[in-house]
Amino acid sequence: MNDNYTIESMNWRYACKKFDGRNIPNENLNTILEAARLAPSSLGLELSNVISISSPEIKNLLIPHSFNNADRINTSSHLLVLCRNRSIGSKELEDYKNMVISARPDTSKEDIDTILNFVNSYINSRDEDSISCWLSNQVYIILGVILSTCATIKIDSCPMEGIDTEAYDKILGLENTSFTSVVAIAIGYRSKDDSNQYLAKARKSLKEYIVHK
């Protein structure tokens, strides 16, 4: 993959408003989901997850709570719902500790303690609203990674903030869990009837957009 391919892919992608109903091959879906799993996360805590929905029945339940996104959801191959932890406490920190130990078994207890002390210090220096905003922001990093990955493997996508997250949580069984939904992405293959694909991409020039210091 070269630089030109990256830019070509970003020019190729757009917010697909209608898909053609074809299913994405498992190989491509797994690439997208693995990229999401490997996305950067603040302090490496990974306080998020992704729900992958292919069931027409569940999609239909979500549509009334998705505002003007019915066409995207109905015709998509999959609907990905990106979720975040509702809060961060001792359980999440213990999970993080175990994850680090599992991935880096040679890490000393002193180094583990140093990491956890730093994480605790960061969390304790912020109020509840700040933590909630921070947790939601992590999901948007994943969103960007998924959209970029889709573009590079020529899978169409449409990010959707227009969802009723409380209703999504209820339908997806998240109400009594540590997770809550934030944003959704419909993925699949563009329909030839989607007129948006024929529109020129409207963006600022690079000179206007980038500030060099």
- Please give the radius of gyration in angstroms: 19 Å
- Describe the main β-sheet briefly: 4 strands, antiparallel
SS strand fraction: 5-15%
Low-confidence stretches: none
What strand order characterises the main sheet? Answer: 1-2-4-3
Give the helices and strands as they follow along the chain.
HHEHHEHHHEHEH
Q: Count of helices?
A: 9
State the distance separating the first and last CA atoms.
30 Å
Shape: globular
Mean of pLDDT? 95
What is the structural class? Answer: alpha+beta
Please provide the count of β strands: 4
Helix content: 40-55%
Question: Your description of this structure?
Answer:
This protein is α+β, with helices and mostly antiparallel strands. Helix content is 47%, strand content 14%. It has helices at residues 3-12, 26-37, 56-62, 70-75, 90-103, 109-124, 128-152, 165-171, 206-209, and strands spanning 48-53, 78-85, 156-160, 179-188. It has a four-stranded antiparallel sheet, with helices on both faces. Helix 2 (26-37) packs antiparallel against helix 7 (128-152). The chain is globular and about 60 Å long. The two termini are 30 Å apart. The model has no long low-confidence stretch (mean pLDDT 95).
Layout of secondary structure:
Blueprint: H1 3-12, H2 26-37, E1 48-53, H3 56-62, H4 70-75, E2 78-85, H5 90-103, H6 109-124, H7 128-152, E3 156-160, H8 165-171, E4 179-188, H9 206-209
Antiparallel strand pairs: 1-2, 2-4, 3-4
Helix pairs in contact: 2-7
